[in-house]
Amino acid sequence: MLRNYLLLAWKVLLRRKFFTFISLVGISLTLATLLVVTAIIDYHANPPRPYTKQARMLFVKSVMGKSKEFTTVSEPHYGFHDKYVRPLPGIEKFSIQTESTFITYPNGQKTTLTAKIVDGAFWDMFDFEFLEGTPFTEEDNQQSRMVAVISEKTRQRYFGDAPALGKSIKLDDKTYRIVGVARDIASSLSVSGDVWYPVSIDLTSKGREGVFDEGVGGYTSVILAKSESDLPSIQAAFQDMLPGVKFATSRIQYMQAAAETNFGVQAQMFFGFDSEDTEYGKRNNTARLIGLLTFVAFLFMLLPAINLVNVNVSRILERASEIGVRKAFGASSTVLVGQFVVENLVLTIIGGAIGVLLAEAVLLWITSAGIFPNAVFHVNARVALYALGMSAVFGLLSGVLPAWKMARLPIVQSLKGGINA
């Protein structure tokens, strides 16, 4: 039966080439637009190397401190992460980091460098590819050795095509010996930078002991769980820990925070911070954002689907006599609906395939244009699966109503030419 449906669908598409062309243009452009957006979101939600262990990672970034009089949101001190987050059960590796920017003048050219200030565990958690040397170690961090890793782009700025290993780079009044050169990664990823050096070098006693609201904080942490199944228990332990946090100042009475996945952190940034939000840190922002994006995608597909409904009605009206004859020979409404839906699904899947090709072309252009520096976008298997789902939804949205409407026409009316006969 299905084989007959598919053969008939192909014949019908070839019969009225203009209608088929209009339909394919609408479907492919709609799906291509959705796929480009989906691919960019997917890249940042499931980034490539160095995030090879992301499935076991949680991130602690901004926290919300509250009192009766006010609410403040910022990144806490090193001490909060070190005293309260590091001891949580189920953690295999733990890294604390911050960042800074420096104005430098390599070869007389003014350049702004983003420095990621990290510990030795950072390099065990993130799988950077090294073109020269190796990362610095936790011993280097503990001893506050003046060493640094630079990016491929920074090496080019300072040393051209020459090796950088063993040479020096100066940031403000401090000089660092280069121990490694890491391949560039997308600048939109949170661990990207131009230079990395040990966090202990800039760490003050206030920063080491402080928790929150004792001056400027600015530190974030990354948790690597022993297994992915440990993430929920770590998140629960994190929430249980918060009421026991002790503050050096009476200005803050309690804090709300969360240990989030990478996508969860981005979802929280998307929704922002509400001082009246009593559920901050406990709400599943990942599910909220996925639900919102799914709803927006549905609305985006709805208008083209309505237009395609009108095209399908016109197409089916021309076949009213065929419908009447088939019903006269015993074809049920269910069989006819199934046939028309399959025809529409074939059309949308073809349109979806064209949409994938268009999306890939646009993503290659975005990559080559450097809109997201160092990021490489493709329609991967996961995004292609999204495309298949979108095509199916599109086909059902635009095919079921006209098919059901025409399949329920009385036989006499169908033989006379359809709805207006």
User: Termini distance?
Assistant: 31 Å
Q: Give the strand tally.
A: 12
- Put simply, the count of helices is 14
Characterize the largest beta sheet: strand count, sense, and whether it forms a barrel.
9 strands, mixed
Q: Report the radius of gyration as a whole number of Å.
A: 29 Å
Q: What would the average pLDDT be, to the nearest integer?
A: 83
Helix content: 40-55%
Poorly predicted regions are: none
Q: Could you give a short description of this structure?
A:
This protein has 421 residues and is an alpha+beta fold. It has 14 helices and 12 strands.
Q: Would you write up a description of this structure?
A:
- There is one protein chain.
- This protein is α+β, with helices and mostly antiparallel strands and 421 residues long.
- The protein has 2 domains: 2-47 and 287-416, no CATH class; 62-259, no CATH class.
- It has helices spanning 2-15, 17-45, 78-85, 121-125, 138-142, 152-159, 205-209, 231-241, 262-271, 285-317, 320-328, 333-369, 381-407, 411-416; strands at 57-60, 63-66, 71-74, 91-104, 111-118, 130-133, 147-151, 168-171, 174-182, 195-198, 220-225, 254-256.
- The strands form 2 sheets. Strands 1, 4, 5, 6, 7, 8, 9, 10 and 11 form a 9-stranded mixed β-sheet that branches.
- Strand 2 (63-66) and strand 3 form a beta hairpin.
- Helix 1 (2-15) crosses helix 12 (333-369), helix 2 crosses helix 12 and helix 12 (333-369) runs antiparallel to helix 13.
- The longest helix has 37 residues, at 333-369.
- The mean pLDDT is 83.
